[in-house]
Amino acid sequence: ARRLIEPSARDELNQAVTRINNLALVHDRLQLFTSSVTQVDAALHFQDLCNMLRSLLPTGVALTTKCSGMIAGDSVESLTLIANELVTNSAKYAFKGRDAGQIVLGYRQEGAGWRLWVHDDGHGLPPDYDDPNNKSFGHQLLLTLAARVNADLKYTSVGGTRADVVCGVRT
């Protein structure tokens, strides 16, 4: 007799497949950028990314962008992966037990630098999440990607969670 997959396990498998497919789309999109690309329009780029990520969001959670300025071609890959990880984390953790929520992905140039942020109106982070000793894979991945673009990663947890990745800007 064939075993049936429990509904919750099926949902988790479907989410995993959707996430893998979206990561493949993100990877394919990043392959379009070569070293000859010197700048990318942040608003268009992150809107395209968010269009791909919306299928991962729980029902009732909205994802919007507030992006302006240009992204240096050599930073596009890292910033895209950072944004993907931060939005995915918000979708996965911020709204447990809630029917609705909001995630905002933003980017802007600030003086000689730039700021990328993801802000959700979810539950917020545990008090020790930004601890330098936090060895979780996701946290370490974000720190590594931020270091690749000479940026700092800061979290605040008021009215949800906000992650700021900043380069050349006073935090």
Estimate the mean pLDDT confidence.
83
How would you name the oligomeric state of the polypeptide chains in this document? single chain
What gap, in angstroms, lies between the N and C termini? 60 Å
- The helix count comes to 4
Biggest pleated sheet:
5 strands, mixed
Report the radius of gyration as a whole number of Å.
Answer: 17 Å
Describe the secondary structure blueprint for this structure.
Layout: H1 7-31, E1 39-41, H2 42-53, E2 61-67, E3 70-72, H3 76-93, E4 101-110, E5 113-120, H4 137-148, E6 152-156, E7 161-167
Parallel strand pairs: 2-4
Antiparallel strand pairs: 1-3, 4-5, 5-7, 6-7
Helix pairs in contact: 2-3, 3-4
Overview of this protein structure:
With 171 residues, this protein is of the alpha+beta class. 39% of the residues lie in helices and 25% in strands. The protein contains four helices and seven strands. The chain has helices at residues 7-31, 42-53, 76-93, 137-148; strands at residues 39-41, 61-67, 70-72, 101-110, 113-120, 152-156, 161-167. Strands 2-4-5-7-6 form a five-stranded mixed sheet. The protein has a two-stranded antiparallel sheet with strand order 1-3. Strand 4 (101-110) and strand 5 form a beta hairpin. Helix 2 (42-53) packs parallel to helix 3 (76-93) and helix 3 runs antiparallel to helix 4. The longest helix has 25 residues, at 7-31. The radius of gyration is 17 Å and the shape is globular. The N and C termini lie far apart (60 Å).
